Amino acid sequence: MKTIVSGIQPTGSLNIGTYLGSIKNFVKLQQKYSDHHFYLFIADLHAMTTPIDAKKLRKKIKELAALYLACGLERDNLSLFIQSEIPAHSQMGYLLQCFTYMGELERMTQYKDKAQKQSEGIRSSLFTYPALMAGDILLYDAEYVPVGDDQKQHLELTRNIAERINQRYGEVFKVPKPLIPKIGARIMSLTDPMRKMSKSDENVKSRINLLDEENIIRKRIKSAVTDSDQTVRYDKQNKPGLSNLFDIRIAITDESVKEIEDAYADKGYKDFKEDLGEIVVNELLPIQKRYRELLDSGELDQILDEGKQRAEKIAAEKIDSLNRILGLGRKRKQKG
Ligand code: TYM
Description:
Elements: E1 3-8, H1 16-32, E2 37-42, H2 44-47, H3 54-70, E3 78-82, H4 88-97, H5 102-106, H6 109-116, H7 124-138, E4 142-146, H8 152-169, E5 177-179, H9 214-222, H10 240-253, H11 257-263, H12 269-295, H13 298-326
Parallel strand pairs: 1-2, 1-4, 2-3, 4-5
Helix pairs in contact: 3-12, 4-7, 4-13, 7-8, 9-12, 10-12
The structure holds ligand 1.
């Protein structure tokens, strides 16, 4: 069965950027690719690449698992699991480091950005992180990897590593293709529309978190930075703030730019923002309700156990076969 793989780090607060760029897209793709199996996971090993409190991490893992499900994922073609519960991820990450060059890792813009924010104690895992991510994907022979725009470079590296190994050892891995949504792949900060909305931004006004209260959601949109013109028109170059709000709206409602522009031909930003507040609230409140029901339910643990079981089996087989191909360990005796 063809597979689709993706993950999210359990760090910071899950915001509508991550939601529209990934989870909402997963939900849509589950319908489009109903004959594929989805391996979606909580990338907790990735969270170890920067300092994080152990108690906080454990809490975030559970919350993210509940949020994934609360956003409406179908269970039929899904394995939802926690990355660290499957040892093959760490093993694969190491093996792929052996096929990744320093120069390639040095070019990763996310590494450069994150390293720049820390003055000392930059973990070597932050540097080798793309090899771990490549492992997450190649373990399951993913056909597609749905991600936001900021993960494109990591995906390209994953493809290069897979092709490099295939060239040397034969067809070991499926070379995965990224699936980047047309709208919502890069939701920008509400306070600085030239920067990506980020869960680690110190300014809480820069984002809407999935669990924000209704009045906060409306407030954040109302105070989102736009320009001084009042014409509701999509123009990324000259109206980046307003265009970002368009993207948020379109990713939720699937309207066209023209439909929205026509609807606001005689109105200004105030109306547009108020309506967007309503749209986002209507999208997030049902998710919040399901989230609260799921968080402490036995159902969540059961889903994570089932996901683990299936993913563990596939991943262990892949590692076994890779070890053999690479000549690691001892030659197995023929059975019988
Ligand atoms: P992470 O946790 O930073 O983000 C999770 C997903 O959300 C997308 N995203 C956004 N999309 C649109 N606008 C934004 N402002 C925005 N912010 C985040 C990201 O592109 C991503 O798809 N390394 C990954 C997690 C990971 C992974 C993997 C993903 C680990 N292994 C294997 C795919 C396959 C990360 O840190 O994503």
